[in-house]
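Record Type II restriction endonuclease, 438 aa.
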Amino acid sequence: MADSMGKLDKAWKEILAQYPIEENTRQGGVYEIQANEIKAFREPRLMTKFDTSESVANPLKELGLNVLPVSRHSYVLGKFNLYEKFPDVTKLKPTPITLPDYETLRLENITSESNAINALLATHTLENFLNEEEQGLLETFNGRMGTGDFSFDVDLLDGTTKKTINVSKAQLEIDGGFESQQSVCIMEAKNIRHDDFNVRQLYFPYRKYLAIVQKPIRLVFSQYTNLTYYLYEYEFTEPTSFSSIKLRNKQAYTFEDCQISEKDIVDVWKNTPVITDDNQDKQVDKKIPFIQADRLDRVISLAECLSSAEDNTLTTEQLTEHMGLVTRQAAYYPAAGEYLGLFQRSRNATSLTNTARKILNMHYRERQLAYTRLILQHQIFHDLFGIVVNSGVFPDKAYVEKEMLRLNVCNEGSTVHRRATSVLAWLSWIFALVDDEI
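=>
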C-alpha cells in the first residue's frame, strides 16, 4: 500500500492544485466537488473513505480539511470537525461472557465484523449492554442503502462556527440494525481499536431511520479485538446537529477467564530468557527495525485479521485499509509484529508465522501471557520490566532512551524519542493485564 497511499496523497495534491478548494475554504467556507472530478485522479471511494482522523490524506490534513458525502455523486470539503475521540477504557474491567456451543460460530472464527456481531447476539451481550430483555433484539436491517434527504449543522474546527450541510440520497452502510419492543439499535462495528471515529458513521444512519421509525433510536459503536468487546453507546442531543454527539455508556466484555495476577506476569518474566539485545549492528541477514508502534492492541488485531485471510496473508494495501491509517503509520504495526516473531514480511505482503498461529489458538489468559513472553525475550523490555517490579515505578523516557542507545537498538536522533514512547506503552500494556481485585 506504500505506492497506493502515495497515490492517494499525490492525487489529492493534484486536485488541490487544479481546483480552488483551499481558497474557498480558507475563511470557513465549503467547496463541493463532483465524484467524476475526483475519479479523473483516482477512485472516489478510495479518495474519501476516512473513518478515523489518522486516515485522512496528508494534503487535506495539512490544510485542516475534511470530506463529507452529500449525494451519490458529490462531496463537500471544509474545515469540519468530524471526529469523536473514544473514552479511555484502560481501567474498564471486562465482564466475562460465554459463547454458546455452536458448530458454526467458534471463538477462533470471530475474525470478521459480521461474525463479531453474530457472537454479540448469540451471547445476548448487546441486550445486556442496552438493558434490553434477553433475546429481545432481532437483527432486521443492515448493508448499503441511501440516506434519504436531510440537512444538518456541523461545527468547524475553530469551535465557534457552524455550517449547514444538505444531503440528498448519499450512500451509507450499516453493519448491524436491530429492533426490540422498546427501541431500534444501529451499530457500527470494527475489529480493531482506534482512538477516534468519523461521526458520520453513526449520524447518517441515525438521520435516515429517524425519518422512518417511531421508537427511540440507540446508537452503538462496537470494537472487538483480542477476545474482548468494547461497546460505546452514543446519542445526538440535537437531532439536526452532527456535532451534538454525546457518550451515554461504555462497557467491556470478554470471553473466558481473563484474570491475570501480578504474580503471573512476574513468573513469565523470571522464566523467560533473553534471546536478543536488538543490537542493530549484529543483524546480518535481515534487519528488523526496532518498534515504533505505541498500540500493541493494533498488532494483535492485525494478527487476528491475518488469521482469517487467505493463506494467512494480506497485501500491504489490504493491511493499510484494515488498519485505517496512512501508509507510514500503518507500516509500523506489521514491523512491530515481525519484531515479536508474529509476522513474516515481504516487500508487498505480511503473513502469520507458526508462532502467531499457536498463540491465536490459545485461551484468553494464556494468549496474553504468550504475548508478554515474546516481548520479554528482548533485552530492553526484560531489563525495564525488572526495574518496574523492583522499584514499583516506571522509568522516565530519558532513562529509556539512554538504555536504548546503550543497547544500540536504534540510532540517536528524533526516532529514539518516538520509539521510547512505544517501549513505555508496551510495558504499560503488560502491567495493565493485571486484575487489581485478585
